[in-house]
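Narrative of accomplishments. A recurring question from our advisory board has been how the design workflow behaves on a single, concrete structure rather than in aggregate. To address it, we present the structure tokens for one chain from the evaluation set, followed by the sequence designed for it. No filtering or post-editing was applied between the two.
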């Protein structure tokens, strides 16, 4: 259906200011003549036009006076997609049938996804034709071990084709990615300037946090702007060799962004979806080689050596089929990296390492050097086994620090990360050795303190695994922007035996 085919009559736009995250939702009064005539029901998918611009949205039906019978209320996500001002005339109609959903149903009953089905599904997802309920069905059908390598290849290829694809003059374009699950693992802000300072190309797009206390883009944003459009991103990379930008500002594998929006809150793990997600973004960004950091630990995303081997093999197989070189580095996922958890606190850790400060987190430095070494060897700047020495030299000399400052300036100007107004130190309750840290609960504590919404909020970890603690010795410091958030986080932290395992001595 085209705008010219829209039904006669119209509704008046009303921006309601309701946050529905990234799902466009619209609101129609049950007594609206159009609601009755079209037979619209709650949760129906409808098309909404404002002139020649149109969106697909999920309908909610209103019974009270929130909106008038001649109005169509727009959530914030719907308004961002459609635009306009209150009083603009809108037209609505039923959404056309979603043909690709039949392939999702078939997948639920065990039929593999072929290349054509994967392409049709991804195309519809990228166009916003899937509701969150339908996205949840797709994710569930592909979760666990329900996707084989051939299906993963088909899905990855379709996700790349559905968005923009960057091309670079350099023959070798590098990237890195961490599969996640480890708080504070902010190596990207070290790896990018090290690699770029060596003359290689590394255009890094990163995500914001969805269920974690900080994403790479959140941390970088405390230092410099990250919402770069494609021309700006290209200019930064061409001048400095690298960037650290928010991937949501560019249309690279847009279907992946929509799947992640629903996948993470569901908490479902799928090697196939993870590999398709990561590699589609890297290929769309023009990368030729990527290093995957895979933390392995009982409270990390990858929990066993066996699971790590299976996931690494899938990365290699899919990367080879799509023409991108993949190197996977399994790393220790038993505890957070660095001291800070939260955007600004993680940025301060990065700055300490770049500036070679005496109290810089050694574990963050060593992880970054290992990843940078692999990239330098893949990029031909160092021979096998020689990348680490080169990376360390670039870091020790201050060249990496100089390069990050130049990247920040090119992205819009460097700034100092903020500091929280309120802090509270929590100490050990009894003597003993710290034998385990629950990464997920620690991340939840940082979120309760306000991260990442409040960039300065989060926590600092003072006791790594193996620390012999005495009663009252600091375990962590909470950082919050208000006393209320500090108190709320404290109430959660008082059950610290669920976060820290201390073997009494």
């Amino acid at each position: 259906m085209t705008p010219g085919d829209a039904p006669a009559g119209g509704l008046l736009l009303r921006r309601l200011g309701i946050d529905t995250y990234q799902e466009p939702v619209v609101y129609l009064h049950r007594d609206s003549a159009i609601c009755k005539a079209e037979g619209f029901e709650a949760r129906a998918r409808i098309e909404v036009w404002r002139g020649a611009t149109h969106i697909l949205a999920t309908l909610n039906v209103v019974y009270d006076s929130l909106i008038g019978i001649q109005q169509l209320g727009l959530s914030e996500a719907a308004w961002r997609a459609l635009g306009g001002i209150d009083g603009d005339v809108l037209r609505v109609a039923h959404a056309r049938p979603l043909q690709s959903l039949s392939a999702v149903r078939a997948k639920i009953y065990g039929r593999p996804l072929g290349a054509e089905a994967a392409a049709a599904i991804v195309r519809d997802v990228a166009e916003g034709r899937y509701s969150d309920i339908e996205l949840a069905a797709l994710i569930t059908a592909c979760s666990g071990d329900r996707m084989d390598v051939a299906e993963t290849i088909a899905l990855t290829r379709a996700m790349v084709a559905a968005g923009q694809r960057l091309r670079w003059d350099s023959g070798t374009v590098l990237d890195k990615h961490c599969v996640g699950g480890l708080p504070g693992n902010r190596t990207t802000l070290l790896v990018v300037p090290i690699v770029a300072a060596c003359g290689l190309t590394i255009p890094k797009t990163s995500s914001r946090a969805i269920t974690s206390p900080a994403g790479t883009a959140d941390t970088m944003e405390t230092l410099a702007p990250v919402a770069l459009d494609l021309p700006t991103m290209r200019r930064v990379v061409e001048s400095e060799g690298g960037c650290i930008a928010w991937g949501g500002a560019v249309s690279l594998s847009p279907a992946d962004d929509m799947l992640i929006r629903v996948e993470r809150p569901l908490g479902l793990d799928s090697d196939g979806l993870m590999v398709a997600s990561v590699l589609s973004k890297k290929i769309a960004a023009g990368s030729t080689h990527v290093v995957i950091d895979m933390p392995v630990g009982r409270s990390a995303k990858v929990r066993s050596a066996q699971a790590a081997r299976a996931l690494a093999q899938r990365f290699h197989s899919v990367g080879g089929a799509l023409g991108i070189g993949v190197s996977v580095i399994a790393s220790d996922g038993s505890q957070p990296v660095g001291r800070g958890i939260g955007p600004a606190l993680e940025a301060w850790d990065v700055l300490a390492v770049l500036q070679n400060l005496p109290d810089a987190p050694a574990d963050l430095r060593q992880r970054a050097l290992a990843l940078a070494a692999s990239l330098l060897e893949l990029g031909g700047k160092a021979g096998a086994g020689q990348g680490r020495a080169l990376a360390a030299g670039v870091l020790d000399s201050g060249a990496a620090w100089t390069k990050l400052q130049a990247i920040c300036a090119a992205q819009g100007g460097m700034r100092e990360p903020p500091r929280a107004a309120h802090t509270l130190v929590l100490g050990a309750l009894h003597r003993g050795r710290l034998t385990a840290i629950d990464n997920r609960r620690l991340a939840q504590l940082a979120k309760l303190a306000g991260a990442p919404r409040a960039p300065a909020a989060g926590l600092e970890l003072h006791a790594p695994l193996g620390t012999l603690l005495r009663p009252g010795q600091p375990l962590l410091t909470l950082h919050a922007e208000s006393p209320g958030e500090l108190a709320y986080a404290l109430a959660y932290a008082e059950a610290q035996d669920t976060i820290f395992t201390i073997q009494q001595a």
